[in-house]
Amino acid sequence: MSSDQQASQEDEQRRALWLAFGRADLTLEQLWTRYFALGGEAGLVEVEAYLHGLMPLPAVQRDMLAHAINERLDELTWPHRVPYTFPARPGRPRTGPLASLVDLLDGMHQAPPEQLPAAAARAGRALGLRIAIYLVDYQQQVLHPLGGPDDCDRTPVGVDTSLAGRAFRTVQTLASTTGGHQRLWVPLLDGVERLGVLDVTPPEGTDLQDPDLRLRCRWLSALIGHLVTISTNYGDGLDAVRLQRQRSPAADLIWQLLPPLTAATDNFAVAGVLEPCYEVGGDAFDYALSPSTASLAIFDAVGHTLRDGFVAAAALAACRSNRRVGHGLFDQAGAIDETITGQFPDGAFATGVLAELDLGSGRLRYLNAGHPPPLVLRSGKVVKRLTGGQRPPFGLGTGELTIAEEVLQPDDWLVLHTDGVTEARDVNGELFGETRLADFLEREAAAGHPPPETARRLVKALLAHQNGALRDDASVVLARWIKSDELGF
């Protein structure tokens, strides 16, 4: 641009400024104050001289002066503007619940699992809260802090010996005030699966019973819980916190095939657990929930070798693949037989139970392939052993295959377990046994514990019976059917 063109442009801008100043309904002092607030460096006398064409101003100063006048013109004309159907540029929320959730989603977009603590902390700040994450180990005994930028001094806490653990066990938000320090312990859930707790520190003087505060914490916990599960699928950072030692190859294979340990619909809940979680090889379970049906399965590959994990995995995969295309119990059982005999021609077999529950009527159909019989818990008592539908173990041929039926009543529990539960022995050789199992279940029902906590406590009881170390795999699936939405979560 030539010097003449530049001078012409500057003069045109000055004239436009002078005309706009006349429409802005501002005194010279008010204009200069707005200009100065934007970072303007020229004095009041210099601005007046520029507007009258008596002296120039640098380009940056001219533009700041123009911006000050344009802001004022926007203020005057905005009330008269015609609204658009859609906003030209949707604004990003800056504070409040929506801003918190957006911060969390943006923070974990294309992020490794290790960035979750920092993303959660930013989301908490949008709500005026300090957030720290604790994840439960796979044995569900200890809550481990997921280190964030401000959490280097945090230590693990016991599930059975701390307020944080109580929030985890009961799935309830609990408040505490220690030394003037207020905090909320919020259960960390993915759906209904318990993953840990959030340690939430609100501003000083906050009412910890405020329903709005607790609701916001619950929303945040739900999203963080989903992100824990999702990010674990593509990175090992969070698993490294939850794993207390290396799993055996067979155990790792089984764990990758398992569904979530807990799931629920509005009228059905199911929880499963495997122990020992680092060495289990031959046990597995599966389930599938739909609006009308709950399908359950449990398997125990017979033997005590690495191959048991492959046998159990084959049984689970055959059952699942046939169930997913709509095949019933007959076809599922046949597919499991064919898969085991085809993949292990030198001989292998697995016991198991397959079951389908109609969620409208309570009609249960099941078959039992050489497995311990399922139990029915009703009104706090074990009322029935389901001994029908017997057939040989999977992999040994179908024999005479029949499907047994039972009708459950609302609020009944169905208990599937492997022989590692009832055959667990103490140091004196005494079996845990079905009677002790029934007594345990009845005590838990009386205490009002939901399926996931009952399953966790059962494993704890088995470990105590065997002096802290199981000698065989032990698995249990607890299911509860009701006709209302009071599942106890």
Automatic annotation (TrEMBL):
Keyword field: Hydrolase
Record InterPro entries: Bact_Sigma-Reg, GAF-like_dom_sf, PPM-type-like_dom_sf, PPM-type_phosphatase-like_dom
Residue span(s) of domain PPM-type phosphatase: 267-481
Ranges annotated as spanning the membrane: none
SMART domains: PP2C_SIG (SM00331)
Gene Ontology MF terms: phosphatase activity
Top-level division of the source organism's lineage: Bacteria
Stored PANTHER family: STAGE II SPORULATION PROTEIN E (PTHR43156:SF2), STAGE II SPORULATION PROTEIN E-RELATED (PTHR43156)
Protein's recorded name: Stage II sporulation protein E (SpoIIE)
